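Take a specimen:
=====
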Amino acid sequence: MNQKGFVVAALLLAISLAALDGTVVGTVMPTIIGQLGGLAYFSWAFSVYLLASTVTVPLYGKLADLYGRKPVLIFGCLLFIVGSLLCGVAGSMAQFIIFRAVQGLGAGAVLPITITVVGDLFSIEERARIQGVFSSVWGVTSLAGPGVGALIAEGMSWRWVFLVNLPLGAATVILLWRFFDERPQKQAHVLDYWGTLLLAGSATALLLGLLQGVDAYGWFGAPTLTLFGVSALLLVLFVLQEQRAAEPVLPLWLFRNKVIVVSSLATFIIGGMMFGVTSYVPLFAQGVLGGTALDAGLIVLPMSIGWPLATVLSGRVILRFGYYTSILIGGVFLVLGSAELLMLSRDSSELVGMAGALIVGMGMGFQMPALVISVQNAVDWRNRGVATATGQFFRSIGGSISVAVMGAVLASHLATRLVKIEGVPLGADADTLLNARARAALSPDVLEAMQRALASSLHEIFLLGLAGALIAFATVLFFPRGSAQELAASAEAASEAMGEAPAAEKTTFVS
């Protein structure tokens, strides 16, 4: 293996760790609660990680452009390792939540900077193929998280879900330190501290409103509306700050580029759709069809097959026909896959859900690599980090909003249906159907009625998914036409017109 091969191996390890940890925790949380207590803070174990990893993404992207990718990526990996170690030895739920925040702060650097480095290492022709591999690894490891968590927790201890990150993370850091050598231009920089704080504050208030306020007080509760108001105010102040900052943390001129605007909007919607499929299709398999946790994992497994298969084809389509064709094909698959999921019912087979997951995976495989590469190719080296991070930021925010919207719709509609069923235990909800012991305590008629109620409620969630797919398809119709080379040339000309002279490539390798 040559030097570039070792760097690619390190990047694949890094992206696998970040993606896996985002989903693996859900499987072991009941066990963690059983040992550490703190059931009231259950949701914070997820929210604090998502919060920390989302609000820091633009900052890491800007730092990578100012000081180089290597130090920022290694710092993120080290912080992730430290957070994993602390989570693995946590002695209380309060400690665990704090340490999950540390993990999230590291994860905020790992995924966007890894994708940025890929953009630095490979030409547009190579990137059309290799970016698909990275997108596939991210998708597959995310889907594998629940199963991996169950195996580790049952075979050893929940603590090993976090401790296993140590040797893998260490290998990532060593490979990056040894083989990844870049020499960014040395010049004085003025970091946009106020812009960073305002953007982080706005995103934090928005996420807290979505992840905590909506759940506790509803969409129109005073605390929820206050958080949304604070988020909007800070966002306005952020825009004003960026207009006068010497080196803005998120340059607003990026959004004059049609490629970046359309890609960001599409990524925002797709982030929400991906959450819907990976969360609610397994819920259907386990809660409605009465399957096991293994069945819940198997029903979305075809998504991890369709995704990499489509990315291979996507690379060829991009090089021959351009981004637009690949993105459009992906949009068609997302619409068809979302429509297929509407066919799921209490009387349907798991094969229906598996077919839908496969088609959605194909859509992701055609769209995601094309969107990422197009954004990276639309700017020069000095702005590639923040441009890539912007896409990741929008995807995380889109997923967060879908968490709140879909969760609120499911909870309210299911509750309305359950109160009409005679014999339903007090306080019963979707979790009742996921617990084998609770299901066994129900009479067959009540169980059947509850499963049909959940099926009807999930059908409405899948309708939201189809609506998102249609909106995403309409959005990508505005993506600029032209080959990858033509769009890169126009982007470079626009960059020069705005005073952003392209910088030379700054990544080399040492033997």
